[in-house]
Amino acid sequence: xxxxxxxxxxxxxxxxxxxxxxxxxxxxxxxxxxxxxxxxxxxxxxxxxxxxxxxxxxxxxxxxxxxxxxxxxxxxxxxxxxxxxxxxxxxxxxxxxxxxxxxxxxxxxxxxxxxxxxxxxxxxxxxxxxxxxxxxxxxxxxxxxxxxxxxxxxxxxxxxxxxxxxxxxxxxxxxxxxx
Length: 179
Known about the structure:
There is one protein chain. This protein has seven helices and seven strands. It has helices spanning 14-29, 42-53, 83-92, 104-118, 136-147, 155-158, 165-175, and strands spanning 2-6, 33-36, 57-63, 76-80, 96-99, 126-129, 160-162. A seven-stranded parallel β-sheet has the order 4-3-2-1-5-6-7, with helices on both faces.
């Protein structure tokens, strides 16, 4: 399975890097392909290292202005003109989406992917990997949106909140009929 992962390129505390590394190793050991932003820094590097060292493939999708930090040695590296094209390429190349911790760029990616799913533009499973409770506030906001009628479909049809990598991968594999 090709699994798109949106996440930060920042250097982060181990409460975020340890779960990211564990998830990455599960992806690699499972024979999955990581589709990610192509960067070889920060959390993006942690995940790419984990997948590659565990035997998985790497498909990077960088963008012109970030190509200097693109990972050497990825199985495949695409370079998009801009962030919008990057998101579209990542979604097109994947069977499922995982959103890990990140800043405004990751939040932008998450909301666009969820908005596209809400409107039926894709049916791929989407997981928010809630490492160290990072997305607790967003989960609460989504529940409020659902309760107050802002979501045209049940929250559980839109996104799955996973507390760890094992739960995230189990959900994705079950959604794909692998388990």
